[in-house]
C-alpha cells in the first residue's frame, strides 16, 4: 500500500509549517511600521486580516501591537484578550486617562503579539472627542516612539471601524501607512474612492507621511469569473501596492473568531491560514527592504 500524497497529509504538512516556523523566520523591519487597516465598507475581512496578519508576523519572531479601534471589539475577541466593560482599553488611552502600557494585554495567540483592546465604551468616544483639543491626534499622541520602544514593537496594526468618522481619522493620523483589504466581489471598488479621498485629506492637513502602502485581496473564490475580473481590475489600478498573495474565501477563517482564535490557531493547515502567513511574509519582506515607502518599489 502506497503512503504517498493525500489531502490529509497535505493539510498536516501545511499545519506543521504554520505551527513550527523554525528556520522560516520573517525579517524585522528596518524601522517601526504603523499601519491603519481601513475600509469603511463592512464585511471585507478587515478585522480578520488584521488579527491573522498580526498573528502570522508574531509567530515568525516579529513583535506586533494590535490596536482595536472598533467598538465591537472583534479583534480583541479573536486575539483572546479580555474586553469587558471596566477593562483598561483604547478608550481610556485616547482620553488620556491611562498610558499605553497600562492598556496593553498579551494575546493568547503568541507572546510576541500584544493588543490594546476595545470595550463598548469606545462607541461614545466619537462624541466625547469632538470637544477635545487636538481631537484627531489623540491616538497618535498615545502611540509615541518612547512607549512603543519600551514595548519593543516592530509593527502596529490599527483595526479601524467600518466608517470614516473620528476614530478612523485618529487611526490615519497615527499611522504612516494604510492597508486596505478589498474583497473579490462585485461591489469591491464601490466606496473606495471616498476612502482614498479621505486619506488624501488627512495627508494634506494632518499627516503628510500617510500613504496607501498595501492592498490585500480577500474572499477570493476561484470558481467564479467575477473574482478573477475584480483581481485583475484592482491589480491594474493599484499596481505593485497589491500583494501577490490572495486570501481565499474560507469557512475556517469565518469560524475562528467564534472560538476566540485566529485561523492560524483554529485550523493551521487550512488554505486560509497559509495565505495569511504568505501575505505576512510579503509585508515583512517589504518592511525589511523599504519597498513599502512611496516610490520604494
Automatic annotation (TrEMBL):
InterPro entries: AAA_dom, DNA_Partitioning_ATPase, P-loop_NTPase. Gene3D superfamilies: P-loop containing nucleotide triphosphate hydrolases. It holds the Pfam family AAA_31. Residues 33-211 form the AAA domain. Belongs to the ParA family. May play a role in septum formation. This is Chromosome partitioning protein. It comes from Pseudonocardia ammonioxydans.
Amino acid at each position: 500500500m502506497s503512503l504517498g500524497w493525500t489531502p490529509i497529509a497535505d493539510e498536516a504538512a501545511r499545519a506543521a509549517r504554520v505551527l513550527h516556523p523554525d528556520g522560516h523566520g520573517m525579517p524585522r523591519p528596518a524601522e517601526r511600521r504603523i499601519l491603519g487597516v481601513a475600509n469603511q465598507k463592512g464585511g471585507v475581512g478587515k478585522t480578520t486580516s488584521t488579527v491573522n496578519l498580526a498573528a502570522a508576523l508574531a509567530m515568525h519572531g516579529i513583535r506586533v501591537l494590535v490596536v482595536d479601534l472598533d467598538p465591537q471589539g472583534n479583534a480583541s475577541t479573536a486575539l483572546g484578550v479580555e474586553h469587558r466593560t471596566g477593562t483598561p482599553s483604547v478608550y481610556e488611552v485616547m482620553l488620556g486617562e491611562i498610558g499605553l502600557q497600562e492598556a496593553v494585554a498579551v494575546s493568547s495567540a503568541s507572546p510576541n503579539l500584544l493588543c490594546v483592546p476595545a470595550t463598548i465604551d469606545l462607541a461614545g468616544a466619537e462624541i466625547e472627542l469632538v470637544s477635545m483639543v487636538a481631537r484627531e491626534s489623540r491616538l497618535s499622541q498615545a502611540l509615541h516612539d518612547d512607549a512603543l520602544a519600551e514595548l519593543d514593537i516592530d509593527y502596529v496594526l490599527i483595526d479601524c471601524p467600518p466608517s470614516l468618522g473620528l476614530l478612523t481619522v485618529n487611526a490615519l493620523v497615527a499611522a504612516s501607512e494604510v492597508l486596505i483589504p478589498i474583497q473579490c466581489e462585485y461591489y469591491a471598488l464601490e466606496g473606495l474612492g471616498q476612502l482614498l479621498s479621505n486619506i488624501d485629506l488627512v495627508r494634506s492637513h494632518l499627516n503628510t507621511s500617510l500613504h496607501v502602502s498595501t492592498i490585500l485581496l480577500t474572499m477570493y473564490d476561484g470558481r467564479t469569473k467575477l473574482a478573477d475580473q475584480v483581481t485583475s481590475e484592482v491589480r491594474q489600478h493599484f499596481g505593485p501596492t497589491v500583494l501577490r498573495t490572495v486570501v481565499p474565501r474560507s469557512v475556517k477563517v469565518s469560524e475562528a473568531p467564534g472560538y476566540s482564535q485566529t485561523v492560524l490557531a483554529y485550523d493551521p493547515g487550512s488554505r486560509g491560514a497559509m495565505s495569511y502567513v504568505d501575505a505576512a511574509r510579503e509585508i515583512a519582506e517589504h518592511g525589511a527592504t523599504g519597498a513599502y515607502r512611496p516610490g520604494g518599489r
